[in-house]
């Protein structure tokens, strides 16, 4: 019993310290001490990722004028909680401050719609929706088999079938979001100016120039010092790994 109480007391101490640290970071942000706020938020993220902390970190970087790291923090917050309207708004606002204006390749409207639908919730939120739908399916199945009235059996069948279909659909959405978290195939350019090469070498042909804050997709992750990247408009090239940071 004493051991349990000791463990519980330690947990409360840790939670209290984390809350106090976040309060200190928020206070530093309000006082416009953005360097201190950034330092504390980064310390908090070392103990565990959190969409709200990444969001606050992005705000601190934004106020400091560091758009590349602001976008990186917002992107990480968006990855964890894509349904948050504040995160989405601030990310879009920070993107307007970047130099590179890239027009994405056109795609079928239903693909765009499907992506937007998936991004309404995080993987955990879709997972909870699956549980709710499956529980509703089980309840409706019980009604169908054990309630004698024909009307209620029809209702149970319809509700059960709908809940099952939604559970499967939400499971697909949750899987897609989980894959985004696991793959982490996108990165943000941190260099103020970056020349993209045709080959993974400084002697390669110059293809085009990117600037800080631009989002790229890593398409070849095999090499240690160089990464092949792809832009939303379809351009492809090689960049030194130290010039980008994975979201």
Describe the structure concisely.
This protein has helices at residues 2-30, 34-47, 51-64, 67-80, 85-95, 109-118, 123-146, 150-183, and strands at 186-189, 193-197, 206-211, 215-220, 226-230, 236-240, 244-246. It is of the alpha+beta class and 247 residues long.
By DSSP (H or I, 4+ residues per run), the number of helices equals: 8
Name the helicity range: 55-70%
Overall structural domain count: 3
Per the principal axes of the C-alpha atoms, what is the gross shape?
A: globular
Overall pLDDT score: 90
- The CATH topology of the largest domain is given as Serine Threonine Protein Phosphatase 5, Tetratricopeptide repeat
Query: Which residues form runs of ≥5 with pLDDT under 50?
Result: 2-6, 8-17
Main β-sheet description: 5 strands, antiparallel
Gyration radius from CA atoms, angstroms: 23 Å
List how many beta strands DSSP finds: 7
> What percentage of amino acids are in beta strands?
5-15%
Domain SH3b: 183-247
Pfam family, one: TPR_16
Transmembrane segments: 126-148, 155-175
TPR repeats: 51-84
